[in-house]
Predict the structure.
Amino acid sequence: MDEIIRRQIISIIDDMTDMTIATVRPDDYPQATTVGYVNDGLTIYFGTTSDAQKAHNIARNNKVSLTIDRPYGTWDEIESLSLGGLATQVSDPAEQEKVGAMMYAKFPQIRGVESEELGALVLFRIDPEVISLLDYSKGFGHTELVRP
């Protein structure tokens, strides 16, 4: 991947707080859900409850797609990404601790949530396989398709 494109993609991921993640439901329909996330470079992490539909969907089929969009006023300001990757539950305690620290730093409001509400929380890591970068400042509909 070109280093300039890589930096632009990571900048979008770093700067935003929400993504829309699509998982595959048992009836084979996609399910899109907006979630908060943190990242370490191109690796994206999010948390959800263990009984959430998206957690069950990932347990059945760990292929996911997501979008992250910068806000824009006009079409020529559109800058976003669409990413396809594999989601896995984070089970390593050191990685869980690292992700937890990143979440507390990015979302300080988590400290106000009761611990019993967080007790059923599971963390997922998304490792990208393909990324489509949309950058309309380079022309209407301009995309760059890259693999990490």
